[in-house]
Design goal:
80% of the residues lie in helices and 0% in strands. The protein has 20 helices and no strands. Helix 1 packs across helix 2, helix 3 packs across helix 12 and helix 14 packs antiparallel against helix 16. Keywords: Antiport, Cell inner membrane, Cell membrane, Ion transport, Membrane, Sodium, Sodium transport, Transmembrane, Transmembrane helix, Transport.
Length: 546
Amino acid sequence: MESVVVILILLVAVVFSGAISRALPLPIPLPLIQIAVGVLVSLVGDMGVKLRPEMFFLLFLPPLLFLDGWRIPKDGLRRDRWTVLEMALGLVVFTVLGVGFFTYWMIPAMPLSVAFALAAIVSPTDPVAVTAIAKRSPIPKRLMHILEGESLLNDASGLVSMRFAVAAAMTGSFSLLAAFGTFLWTAVAGLIIGAATTFCVTWVSTFWNNKFGEETGSHIVVSLLTPFAAYLAAEQVDASGILAAVAAGISMSFTEDSLRNLALTRIRRLAVWDTVQFVANGVIFVILGEQLPHIVSGAAIVVQETGHHEPIWLVVYVIAINLALALLRFIWVWVSLRFTLARAYRRGFKPFVPSWRLVAVTSLAGVRGTVTLAGVLTLPLFLPDGSPFPARDLAIFLATGVILISLVMASVSLPYLLKGLELPPEPSHQKEEERAHIAAAEAAIKAVEQAVHNWGEGRSDADLYTTAGARVMSNYRERLADQNVSDADAINTQKVAEIERRLRLEALKAERQTYFAFGRRHQLSEETTAKLIREVDLLETRFSNG
């Protein structure tokens, strides 16, 4: 019963933090508000949450990494794959070595293996946090795609690196050759198992749906269970469950078309996954806030062991690590950019040369978030001999401080750096979209004509089918007429479409109010009222995203 109450309190705290975020006049990042709410919860009443690292890892990371892989833009990832790989793999190794040795030099009481584990876990970036704080100064799409691809891969590389560092701390030894062999196995096996899990689930679902029909609720539950299945299967053979979850998500984006799900299934699944992402991210940060007082007190004890008796040294350590992370990231981005430009010049191209501000934006946009927090909280509680894991509370506090400081730095600096920033032109997909619309409308008209012919042939009421078909095809013929306009009229056509969209939203609001009124006066049954309102809601969703 106590566990259920704790879960309910955490969910209420997530909802409360979201309400506060919308009410505040300043664009304060939601994770900061959630941490503050968690601290408030701990001050009001200690819930006594005892985190089991392996359970925490299993519950939160697989669905979040799976969803990242599922939704990442594949075109942008393919176009900038080398840049993404340089940032996601090379920068992680660079960060682990640089920050690891720096932290060990700065805090001798922290063992080198633990310092490397801390450096590994603060290396992954979180584009969700960047999106949240850059709403008033949006980050360019191409840069955002690079950051998303980087975060997807460096989540895995950072967490796998942390796993090696923790293993070294637990055993007291480390072999580079053995580590490379282990990394190769965990990475390759994890990727294969994740992809295989998705393909198996897709094949079984397709077979079952074709034979017995599709049930929306069951399919959504299967999609929720897929990342956990991939993670647990990989962990059973000592492979990387993290990479398995990522690979399962990426594979799902490629196999989704073969499922041929119902439209209702896709709509409801999208809503469910959005809710899972919001709740999982929110609960992690609220738990961090709730644990923060205990983390601070434990970290203060470790600081005293270093010979510093003032708690201010905790703040000094956090700021120093953040500066080291920012400096290493800036150096890596600048050097990587020089190599990219050099390759382009050798091929005879004249690439866009970004200013130092774009390099600074790329560096500061590497904020830390959910994965860093989830990973650091999974540090073992005890060594194999039963003694406490060295400097665990200090490592958690430093990682927490890195998250907070990086969020604050990005929220303050990004709007300023992005203002008036000169960027390369974004490629337009307008022509491709127009061609797709034309092809789809032509295919729809042919399908309707064929259906009218087949269904109405030999029937006494064939004229009804002809009339209905004409009404359906008129909408598609209007679409074709709108697409076949000159470039000079395209702007006016877009303006008319925008005005029409806004008028449709006003009309739909009036429809909904009317249906509600009829329902209140019992002039419509509850079932009919709910059906009509759902139809209006679906149309409003379509035109709101138009």
